[in-house]
Amino acid sequence: MHTAADAAQRETIAAWLADSLNRPDDARQQWMDGHVALLALGRRFSAVRLADELVYAVAVGEGAIATAVLRECLRGPVIHDPHNRRFYALVPPSPPGPGLGPYATYVGLGNYIGVPRVGDNEPTGSLTSYWAVPMAAPGALCDPLRVNGMIEAGTAALAARAES
After folding, report:
1. Nearest-5° angle of CA 113, CA 67, CA 107?
2. Least buried of 96, 105, 112, 161, by fewest C-beta within 10 Å?
């Protein structure tokens, strides 16, 4: 059940996300017209694109199991794009160190990301993006060190699986 406080918090988060654009009303219009707004990376936040197989290797499963593991491991917002089989961990705009490996890519300044409407936290049959882990508050992003740790764990699990 959603309360007025929940609605106000969702609006505050949406406003913070929309402000990644020079014209924040464009994002609001895109969310009203559809499901996803194209937001600029590198100003307020950036993203680390994670291959589905990396996340599922860490989670040792899919769906709700993967979401629970992401929530616990990263403790920040994660978007899932099931159509393209990718997760996006939202991180601060400074680039990570080199070498995220073959299953992860830093996406920052000069790039855009499709961000689902705040509150769209479940996958739909249309394979559109959704919040696998919702943003808790404006500016509450994933810790890059936690993201790197998850990438290392997933890469090791996938390498071990390939060897066996």
Report:
1. 25
2. 161
Q: Report how far residue 26's alpha carbon sits from residue 57's, in angstroms, rounded to the nearest whole number.
A: 37
What is the DSSP code (8-state) at residue 50? E
**Domain spans of the chain?**
4-163
**First and final CA of the chain: distance in angstroms?**
47
Could you tell me the two tokens for 148? 């790197």
Render pLDDT for 100-159 as a digit per residue (tens, 0 to 9): 899 999 999 999 999 999 999 988 776 689 999 999 999 999 999 999 999 999 999 999
d(CA 107, CA 68): 24
pLDDT at 147: 94
Q: Where are the alpha helices (DSSP H) in the chain?
A: 4-18, 24-33, 52-59, 64-74, 144-163
Q: How many CB atoms lie within 10 A of CB 1?
A: 3
Q: Is the pTM of this model over 0.85?
A: yes
Structure tokens at 1: 């059940």
35: left (phi over 0), alpha (psi -120 to 50) or beta: alpha
